[in-house]
Write a structure and sequence with these properties.
The chain has 288 residues and is α/β, with parallel strands linked by helices. It has 10 helices and 12 strands. It has a single domain, classed as TIM Barrel, CATH 3.20.20.100. The chain has an 8-stranded parallel β-sheet. It has a two-stranded antiparallel sheet with strand order 1-2. A hairpin with a 2-residue loop joins strand 1 and strand 2. The protein is globular and about 55 Å long. The protein binds NADP nicotinamide-adenine-dinucleotide phosphate. It comes from Bifidobacterium ramosum.
Amino acid sequence: MMLHRNLGPFDTTAIGHGEMPLTIENNRGHDVGIETLHASLDAGCRHIDTAWAYYTPGEEEQTGEKLVREALDTWHGPKDEVLVATKIGLRRAYDDAGKPIWPRDGKPEHLLRYGKESAMALGVDTIDLLYMHRHDPEVPYNESIEALKQLVDEGVAQYAGVSNVTIEQLDIARGILGDKLIAVQNQYSPIHLDTQDTLDYCAKLGLAFVCWSPLGGYRHPYDETKFDPFREVAAKHGVSYQQVVLAWELAKGDHMFVIPGAHRPETILDSLKAGELQLDDEDFAKLG
Ligand SMILES: NC(=O)c1ccc[n+]([C@@H]2O[C@H](COP(=O)([O-])OP(=O)(O)OC[C@H]3O[C@@H](n4cnc5c(N)ncnc54)[C@H](OP(=O)(O)O)[C@@H]3O)[C@@H](O)[C@H]2O)c1
């Protein structure tokens, strides 16, 4: 049995599956995507994280959400146990240099459309958890969050979350969404500790903190030496250093959730074992 925690009213696994690498650029194709999602569901994972914007720029939109729908439709396990979270407010494009980017679009009327499109792509009447992906600086944050609230009020989403937020933005969202706000999804990992303030604030408020790119993500190069202590602890336990990283993040509090990504079954199956790893005082002294 995998480690379960309460994410708002949902009883789900503390380790979720971040779908993004399966459908953005450099993915390994549709069939590997389905195989990878089925592998994690079969292993007991009950939380999938996707987004309207998880597609390759210039190609079909919303392929991440569509892949999740297909994976669940073709899976023979208990689908109603699976928490599916998605996000609206970003799109994909290439910049002038041909680099893939994530343009922001937080206009309320667009968010209302994106939310309904997400529900359609996921094949549900009501999305379990819908996040505002990232603040669009051209739109006052409260206006975007009012649109998210409208989507909840209309039953397009059951609960709301916010992502990539500061404490100030989180307070704006709390003021508008009240107890419909259940989760904050911010980047957090040994190479990105800047969000410690929101992590602590969520613990105080009783909100779930969902770490994105918990293993450092795909934005190499970063300072690999930050993972050295995790490699040492991993060698002692005979596990991958990625499992140690995830176990260390989950130990930050009962409100912590991690959503590692993967391009293939092997890596997500390894990551899902992190909930069983028991780190001791000596390990924590080394890891901080
Ligand atoms: N809210 C936001 O703005 C935001 C932004 C970024 C990401 N996210 C979410 O966070 C999720 C995770 O982020 P991410 O995919 O960028 O990064 P990540 O989880 O930090 O890292 C994924 C990479 O780690 C490797 N990996 C995973 N588990 C491993 C293991 N046990 N052993 C060895 N390698 C392992 C994968 O390798 P392989 O490639 O070999 O499988 C993959 O390349 C995304 O899928 C998405 O759902 C949200």
